[in-house]
């Protein structure tokens, strides 16, 4: 059946105006199927798909529209529109090309320069992005957002003084621009200028008392400083940023044993954030069970084999299992607030996890290869998608000074990055068993038979701590709040030792201190080379 394209487009437009997007899309899809290069049909379908949040389809249609026309017949507005859709579809390489075509027609257009810079950032082309933002802020010096994004990029590049100057410039242009105050506060916190950081968060909240970024960053700063009462309370704001959601009604949130005695009631405790967070805060289930609650817990699928029989629970489910009926629910990281945890009252009894006895034998060959040498597990990087990965993770090559110690070193790294794999293959002193670490239950069975674990701030450190294993944790200059400041021990894991960067980015000093500590852990029989 041949469509009357004009009539179809007219009907689609009427549906679009009336908000009947599905019907408009159906008609436009039919029109494009019959006339693949029809400009109006492609343009209309791109608009409908974008309105529906289907940016991939919208970008497809917009770029096909450009391809169907001669180069000279395309305006910079059309290039800009297609570039924005590619950007929304996370197709930043295409977006960069289209933004550059825009600039050929409209040099120094502020929105185009800004869009180009943002896609360059996402594409990892940081120096080109900075040059673009420099150009934008020079041509249009009163654009506060350009200075703000320039500050964020400068921070990524490690130019911290310039970063803060850019935020201050954005504030000078727009004094009520709360994101700049928040990011300036974070930059100051990361330099350990805590009073100044807290002042910036206060200023942001004076402008907007409901600013989630200011609330949550102030919470994490207070937790880092050991101010738990204020920190836990304000940390609850993390659920209000519009991106994080637990999916349960606020009325069913458990608010603590005083407000809602848990004895005889069913509490649904569920994971949030990372695997390490679950391993650290699952200990609060013990307190709920002691108070008489029936605890059902949901954990990440990767942890389910390890935590399936966690004591004090009546059931442990995975991420996609049906949620049973419950009286109240509570996210794992809200339990410290609900219990009113203070520095002196952290539940720190370890071990609270045990390895599956049936899995221990699978590591017999590793234990046999170690012989009488001390067995040391190593983890040098965390999740590459973590917001602070660039600061908290190392490359395996940076740990090379450790491997001349007379010990059996075993990699606990399941996710080995490409840049580490070649070096790992050339480091015979470090046994790579990544292909055998199928679940955390497998890793736990290996860790349980080691003498020591050395790890960056990742889930392996929490696993070792929860198993009661001696664990040495390598930390960046400004660590995650849970490790606090200026201490070599942890109230969360009594057998942990913390090795901190003395200045930002200085992993060499951390590794040297770890190596010296290994001498005390198992003295080297022959002098080390200088």
Automatic annotation (TrEMBL):
Keywords of the record: Repeat, TPR repeat
**Name by which UniProt lists this protein:** Tetratricopeptide repeat protein
What PANTHER family does the record point to? TETRATRICOPEPTIDE REPEAT PROTEIN 6 (PTHR44858), UDP-N-ACETYLGLUCOSAMINE--PEPTIDE N-ACETYLGLUCOSAMINYLTRANSFERASE SPINDLY-RELATED (PTHR44858:SF1)
Q: Name one Pfam family in it.
A: TPR_1
The reply to whether Repeat figures as a keyword in the UniProt entry is yes
TPR repeat residue numbers:
144-177, 178-211
InterPro entries given for it? Answer: TPR-like_helical_dom_sf, TPR_rpt, Ycf3
Annotated SMART domains? TPR
